[in-house]
Design goal:
The protein is built from 6 helices and no strands. The protein is an all-alpha fold and 140 residues long. It folds into 2 domains: 92 residues, no CATH class; 39 residues. Helix 1 packs across helix 3 and helix 3 packs across helix 4. The longest helix is centred in the C-terminal third of the chain and has 36 residues.
């Protein structure tokens, strides 16, 4: 699926990916996509770009990150018609369950994300501590 030079060229042309691409450049590129055909081409090109930039990642991880990054643009002034178009090809905002969340839904999504990040930090801190203790035992 991810072997179309045309898709990579389309993504590169819209995003400026061969030069230093800023978040603003990326958002502008996502917002400039018109129609489902262009959206599919952009997504495929972006995944191909991700594969080139991060060959160590599994394909499904590059796909997830690409979809999430495009989905984050939903909160950057994207009209509902573009959100519907992106959603039709399987892209959505990674935190919001609806296309236009209420302030309450946005707040709840932020709380859930914060809780997840706190849990992940606690797990990593615990693992790090175990590794340090094991290292100390070996060096006594």
């Amino acid at each position: 699926m991810y072997d179309s030079q045309a898709a990579l060229d389309f993504y590169t042309r819209l995003s400026g990916a061969k030069s230093k691409t800023t978040i603003g450049d990326f958002v502008e590129a996502v917002l400039s996509v018109k129609g489902e055909v262009e959206a599919r081409l952009f997504l495929e090109g972006y995944v191909m770009h991700m594969i080139q930039e991060h060959p160590e990642r599994a394909l499904n991880e590059n796909e997830r990150i690409a979809r999430d990054n495009i989905g984050f643009c939903f909160g950057e002034g994207m009209p509902i018609s573009l959100k519907v178009m992106w959603k039709s090809i399987g892209v959505s905002h990674p935190f919001f369950p609806t296309l236009d969340p209420t302030p309450e839904q946005a707040f709840e999504a932020g709380v859930r994300w914060g809780e997840r990040m706190q849990f992940e930090k606690e797990v990593m801190d615990s693992l790090w501590k175990e590794m340090e203790e094991e290292h100390d035992k070996k060096n006594v």
